[in-house]
User: Which sequence fits this backbone?
């Protein structure tokens, strides 16, 4: 388990990985990867109980993580590689022909750490709910974590799953929304408001927590609070992590422009100059 | 020479399950969905990994007994089918065998993307069990009468597609698919229909069943049309035509050897299914034959039109899905033989 200082250093390297992968592939999704970086770094390097070297798809005796917003694979693959699921040098194959690192997560290439495909939005919470019920039936005390995007939450299936989790009193699942306020065509409010995510989740029978998704103290405290709430009440918890799209690279911050666009080499250079190489580039 | 296989299911030694010595008699009309319900109850008792999810249609799917006996393994999912499919995929991960159930129209078209990504592409061990398939759903009309579900499901890589013909076969198939690892679409119906296959049958996925030997024409039938094909064959016999009837309960992977061997003998083909021509079993057989041994062929299926309200048996007749239409098609295809 890493302390705050180590988490910050790890996150800086992961942000470098994201920029380098997307630049090398000249495609991919840097904006949301950068906004969720601190959340997944906290999960993979501190919060979750998992064994990267002995991963198996049944998730037995491990916490399981599901990426519902499947397009932020640069981040997902980097946290997996850096936490030991596969060698970091494989990050260089991202989105290339024959790679295990598909544009969106796939279980068909033998990449450890992926339980289910995602990419078509809105399905991850449902899948995570099933996995949580499976753990409950099997008497496995570990948890299921799932990350959703705020734009993704426009999908109707998310709210089917919300109702389902509350109805079946699923309290071994912690859901997280990356509230970066941007999607492809503009801000979440411009594209399909009025949003009101916290009110919605509460109305669907969930406990909610809001936290600063770029402060590790706040992120880790939110996880602790979520686990406490789930011990006390048979209710699922949604943590809304307030973040900044493109966080860490000044010209990518707080704009939808970099949702799914790769930087040109000179732009990548400007981006990397802002991110300290802490663990060695792949 | 090895034939051009579409689904590459040539691993097992060649053997059609022959039941032509049995006399097929209707032991009493029963609905196929009740066969599913009985199969589920039996499965629930012998395998504690089997779980069921249902979208507010527990009664229609005959899952009441399962839900009562195994409440901790029955998940009411409400009228939220997309969530139900993906939840099933999640449940399958740590070894559960989820059966997700609703009407065929909601189990396929409504949730195609969820099946595609969460189940098929993810190779999740989910059994999609769909009742009220086809025109025999009846009075509810075209909104509920899906006639393209076989096509939708068979297009997905790694999906197994099964359409059972009667109560006994549906029960046997329900039990059999729990032992198969991988996504399955099991299609059955609403109305009471003749129950004529053996109660003690062993269901083998991907193995066609020759239920009547014949030499002039091959009738490949699936689902409710198998009984109609048998009736047609008896009618044709009176006219001096010897019809072979093969029950294609598994449309994917298709029993290609069974099809090719029968057609090599009869050189004339009828396919009969409660489905659109487009995407159906008939097209599957036609493409196999086109690549190997083209023969005159007639499709008994619905061509490019939606259904409507009516009683199941009226609709079968009105839409050309009965023994009479099969007989006519057989006579026509035999005339086309050179």
Assistant:
């Amino acid at each position: 388990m890493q302390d705050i200082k180590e988490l910050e250093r790890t996150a800086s390297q992961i942000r470098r990985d994201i920029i380098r992968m997307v630049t090398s592939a000249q495609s991919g999704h840097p904006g949301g990867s950068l906004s969720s970086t601190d959340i997944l770094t906290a999960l993979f390097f501190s919060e979750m109980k998992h064994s990267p070297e002995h991963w198996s798809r049944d998730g037995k005796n491990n916490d399981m993580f599901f990426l519902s917003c499947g397009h932020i694979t640069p981040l997902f693959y980097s946290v997996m590689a850096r936490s030991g699921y596969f060698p970091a040098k494989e990050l260089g194959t991202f989105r290339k022909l024959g790679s295990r690192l598909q544009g969106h997560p796939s279980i068909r290439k033998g990449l450890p750490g992926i339980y289910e495909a995602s990419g078509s939005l809105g399905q991850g919470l449902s899948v995570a709910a099933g996995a949580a019920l499976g753990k409950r039936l099997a008497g496995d005390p570990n948890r299921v974590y799932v990350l959703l995007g705020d734009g993704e939450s426009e999908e109707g299936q998310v709210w089917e799953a919300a109702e389902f989790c509350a109805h079946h009193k699923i309290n071994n699942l912690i859901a997280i929304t990356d509230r970066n306020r941007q999607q492809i065509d503009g801000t979440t409010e411009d594209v399909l408001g009025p949003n009101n995510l916290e009110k919605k989740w509460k109305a669907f029978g969930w406990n909610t927590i809001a936290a600063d998704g770029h402060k590790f103290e706040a992120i880790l405290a939110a996880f602790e609070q979520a686990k406490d709430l789930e011990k006390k009440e048979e209710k699922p918890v949604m943590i809304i992590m307030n973040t900044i799209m493109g966080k860490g690279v000044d010209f990518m911050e707080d704009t939808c422009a970099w949702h799914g666009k790769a930087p040109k080499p000179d732009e990548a250079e400007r981006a990397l100059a802002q991110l300290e190489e802490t663990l060695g580039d792949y | 020479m090895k034939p051009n296989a579409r689904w590459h299911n040539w691993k097992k030694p060649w053997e059609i399950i022959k039941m032509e010595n049995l006399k097929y008699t209707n032991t009493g009309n029963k609905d196929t969905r009740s066969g599913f319900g009985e199969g589920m109850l039996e499965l629930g008792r012998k395998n504690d990994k089997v779980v069921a999810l249902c979208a507010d249609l527990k009664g229609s799917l005959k899952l009441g007994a399962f839900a009562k006996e195994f409440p901790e393994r029955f998940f009411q999912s409400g009228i939220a089918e997309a969530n139900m499919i993906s939840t099933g995929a999640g449940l399958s991960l740590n070894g559960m065998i989820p059966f997700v159930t609703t009407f065929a129209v909601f189990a396929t078209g409504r949730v195609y993307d969820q099946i595609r990504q969460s189940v098929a592409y993810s190779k999740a061990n989910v059994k999609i069990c769909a009742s009220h398939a086809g025109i025999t759903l009846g009075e509810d009309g075209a909104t509920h009468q899906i006639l393209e579900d076989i096509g939708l499901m068979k297009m997905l890589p790694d999906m197994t597609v099964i359409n059972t013909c009667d109560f006994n076969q549906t029960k046997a198939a329900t039990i059999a698919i729990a032992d198969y690892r991988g996504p399955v679409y099991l299609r059955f119906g609403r109305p009471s229909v003749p129950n004529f296959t053996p109660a003690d049958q062993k269901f083998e996925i991907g193995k066609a069943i020759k239920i009547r030997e014949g030499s002039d024409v091959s009738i490949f039938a699936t689902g409710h049309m198998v009984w109609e094909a048998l009736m047609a064959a008896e009618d044709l016999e009176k006219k001096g035509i010897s019809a072979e009837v093969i029950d294609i309960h598994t449309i994917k992977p298709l029993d290609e050897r069974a099809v090719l061997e029968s057609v090599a003998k009869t050189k004339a083909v009828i396919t009969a299914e409660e489905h659109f021509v487009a995407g159906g079993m008939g097209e599957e057989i036609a493409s196999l034959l086109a690549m190997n041994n083209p023969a005159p062929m007639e499709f008994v299926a619905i061509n490019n039109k939606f259904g409507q309200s009516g009683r199941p048996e009226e609709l079968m007749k009105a839409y050309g899905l009965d023994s009479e239409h099969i007989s006519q098609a057989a006579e026509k295809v035999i005339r086309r033989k050179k």
Summary: The first strand of chain A starts at residue 64 and ends at 67. Chain A touches chain B at residues 57-60, 64, 66, 106-108, 115-120, 122-124, 126-135, 137-138, 140, 156-157, 160-161, 163-164, 167-168 (CB under 8 Å). Residues 4-272 of chain A form a domain with the Rossmann fold fold (CATH 3.40.50.970). The longest helix of chain A spans residues 4-25.
